[in-house]
Amino acid sequence: MVVITSEKRDVILDAVRKMYTDLARDPEQGFHFPTGRAACEVEGYPPELLDRLPAGAVASFAGVSYPFAAEVLGEGDTVLDVGAGSGTDSLIAALLVGPKGEVIGLDMTPAMRERLSRNARAMGANNVRSLDGSAEEIPLPDGSVDAVTTNGVLNLVPDKPKAAREIHRVLRPGGRLQVADIVLGEDPSEACRSKPELWAECIVGATKEGEYLGFLEDAGFTEVLVLCRMDYFAHSPDPGTRDLARSLGAQAIVLRARKA
Question: Are the CB atoms for 202 and 243 separated by under 8 Å?
Fold first, then answer.
């Protein structure tokens, strides 16, 4: 596992915030990874479900696959969306848990939190709230949520084992986790790892699949199961990004797990 110094960590997080601030404020400017409704549909989001969301939520979407394929959310659940962004997944979760449930959209980018709140109001989703924070330090009590969803986020996190422990901590016993994320077939070079902009593009911060599953199991998760895989970066508009992803064997996975 690559060692991230505190100085490098700050640079990486600044690059991630900048990238996703740009996506929140100007989703049409073009990015190196798939975004918006086109990305949603390629990744398996049902169009009829997207039609129920505000256009602003879908326009700034930057997830990597369809985590709801894991089917772990139930009516009345309290759900934490880690790295909620503009709220595509938070708002879908709100529809699934119903008015008796609650969805907490956690994000470290102010522009995304603002967009999430605006989109929730536009949809009339009174059971959705935004929360400032990161996956490495989730500002919620132990055992406070029934389920966690996250989409294309842990690959951006410098300390992935800590994030896995934090997610495990805030789940109630028996709580469920659904994840869509990027994993690699080959480790990036240190030269690639040293480029914060490549972290922000969801490639070089990712880890091999076995290592990723190991983080979850070491944190205490059981029944960790990969449900599907897809070539997410094949849909990137940038040839350089496609080539780099191909050279590293990058792909998106969807998995589910449980807290014992």
Answer: no
Distance CA 84, CA 86 (A): 6
State if pTM tops 0.85. yes
DSSP result, 91-158:
HHHHHHH-TTSEEEEEES-HHHHHHHHHHHHHHT-TTEEEEE-BTTB--S-TT-EEEEEEES-GGG-S
Domain boundaries, the chain: 6-259
Which fold does the domain 6-259 belong to in CATH? Answer: Rossmann fold (3.40.50)
Q: What are phi and psi of 210, to 5 degrees?
A: -60, -40
The C-alpha angle 178, 182, 185, rounded to 5 degrees, equals 125
Q: Return per-residue pLDDT of the chain as tens, 260 residues.
A: 444 444 576 777 787 788 778 888 888 887 888 999 999 999 999 999 999 999 989 999 999 999 999 999 999 999 999 999 999 999 999 999 999 999 999 999 999 999 999 999 999 999 999 999 999 999 999 999 999 999 999 999 999 999 999 999 999 999 999 999 999 999 887 767 766 566 655 687 899 999 999 999 999 999 999 999 999 999 999 998 899 899 999 999 999 999 99
| Angle at alpha carbon of residue 230, lines to 225 and 231, rounded to 5° | 140
